[in-house]
Amino acid sequence: MSEVNEKSDMPVSIYLRCDVGGYHGLGHLARMQVLANYLANSTSFKPVLIFAAEKSEVIQAKLATINAKIVQAPTYLHQEDSWTYDFIAGCKNEKGGSIVTVFDQKDISSGFVGEFNELGVTVCLDDEKYRSFDCDILVNPNPWSARCGYQIAQPEKTEIIAGEGCHFVDQQYFDQRQLQRYSAQHPHILITMGGEDPLNHTSWILKNCAGVLIDVKVDVVVGPSHPDARQVEADAKQYVPHATLHFSPPDLKQLVAGTSCAITAGGQTCYELLASGVPSIGVVVEEHQRSLVDFFVGEGALLYGADHSLTGADILCDRMRSLLESQDVWCSLRNAGYRCFPDDGIKPLLDAIKRKIGVT
Fold first, then answer.
1. How far is Cα 26 from Cα 30, in angstroms, rounded to an integer?
2. Exposed e or buried b for every residue in 169-187, given b needs 16+ CB within 10 A?
3. Number of Cβ atoms within 10 Å of the Cβ of 238
4. Exposure check for the chain: N or C terminus, fewer CB within 10 A?
5. Residue 130 region, left (φ>0) first, then alpha (ψ -120 to 50), else beta?
6. What is the per-residue DSSP string for 215-242?
7. Which residues of 310-342 are buried (b: 16+ CB within 10 A; e: fewer)?
8. pLDDT per residue over 221-246, tens digit each?
9. Residue 18 to residues 4, 72, 105, 107, 233: CA-CA distances in angstroms?
10. CA-based angle 278:279:284, to the nearest 5?
C-alpha cells in the first residue's frame, strides 16, 4: 500500500469485488451486501460493488437491495481479470481520493491481490483455512479462527482480523430476536441446505424425518443452484405433503422471522439463524463446513445433525424431537447463539480501514 496522507475530508471510495453463482454460491454476495449497506448508511464512504455472475432473477433481486453503485465485471476472479484493476485505476485517476479494494471470493491468488496495493488499501476476506494474501487487511470472519493461524510474509504491513466479533450478518436479523418464541403447541421448522445443496440433503431429510414432521409446520428452502429441485418437490409431496416449498428466495428474513427452529447447512444462513435467535440443527453439507458446525456445537449454540455421508438419520430425528419438544433445549441454544454474535460485526473491519487510510 502506498502511503496515504489524505485528510478526513477527502473522498473515500470502497470497491467490493465478489463472484456469485452456481460454483461460487451466494454467500460472497450476501457478505458484500451487508458491508455495502453498512458503509452507505453509517459512513461517508462511497461503496461500489463489482461482481461477476450468471444470469439469475434471484441475483438481480438481491442486487436491488444493495445501497451502492453496481458494476458487472465481464469475467470471474478465478480467471485472469485485468479488467477490475483497470476499472478501479481509471476511477482513481478521474476522481482522486483514497481507494480501498475488498476481495471476497473462492479463487484468487496473493499475487493478483498484490497488484492492487499501488492503488490504495487492499482487504481480503478469507473464509477458508488460513489462506495468506499480500494485502493490508486480512479478515477471517469465522469465529474459531485465530491470528496465529496465519503465516504472513510482511506481518508489519498486514493487519489480521480473525474471529474477534467480526461478522457479516445483516442488522435486520438481530432485530428479529424479539420475535422468536418457543411453542410446543404450534411447532414450526425451517429446512434450508444453502444455495447449492450438491448431494440433495433436502430430499434426504424429508424422506428420513417425515415421521417427526407429521404435526409440525414445515418450510423448505430450495436454493438457486440446487441440482434437482424437481426431486425435492416430488419428495415433499410424497413424504411431507403439508410442507411449503420456497424456490430461490432472495433472502430468508421473512422465513427466519416466522419460524421457531431450523435445520441448516453450515454456511452463511447458519450465522443468520443463530444471530436471529433461532435454535438450529447443523448439517455438514460439504466438508469445508465442518469447522463451522463443530465450533457452534462446541459453544452450545447448535445441535449436530448429519454430514455429507448421508448417514445417521436416526440421530438427526432424535435431535429434531429434542429441539421441538424441550423448551430447555430450545432456550439453551438460543442464548448460546446470542453470545456468539455481537450486534455490530462490521465495526472491527471499519476501524481497521480507517487506521490504514488515516481517517478518524
1. 6
2. bbbebbebbeebebeeeeb
3. 12
4. C
5. left
6. TSEEEEEE-TT-S-HHHHHHHHHHH-TT
7. eeeeeebbebbeebbeeeebbeebbebbbebbb
8. 998 889 999 999 999 999 999 999 99
9. 25, 10, 5, 10, 31
10. 110
68-95 pLDDT, tens digit per residue, is: 999 999 888 766 678 999 999 999 999 8
Burial environment of residue 78 by CB neighbours within 10 A (0 to 12, 13 to 18, 19 or more): middle
Q: What one-letter code names the amino acid at 324? A: L
**Around 345, how many Cα atoms within 13 Å sit in the side-chain half-sphere?**
29
CA atoms within 13 A on the CB side of 255: 25
d(CA 332, CA 313): 23
pLDDT higher for 343 or 117?
Answer: 117
Residue type, 179: L
Nearest to 226 by CA among 251, 196, 191, 206: 196
Q: Where are the alpha helices (DSSP H) in 181-228?
A: 201-208
241 contact partners, CB below 8 Å, separation of at least 6: none
Handedness of CA 36, 37, 38, 42 (dihedral sign): positive
Three-class SS state of 306: strand
In this prediction, residues 142-157 reach a mean pLDDT of 80
Separation of alpha carbons 64 and 243, rounded Å: 29
DSSP calls for 84-95: HHHHHHHHHHHH
Euclidean distance between CA atoms 63 and 58, whole angstroms: 9
- Alpha-carbon distances of 98 from 11, 16, 116, 200, rounded to whole Å: 6, 14, 13, 46
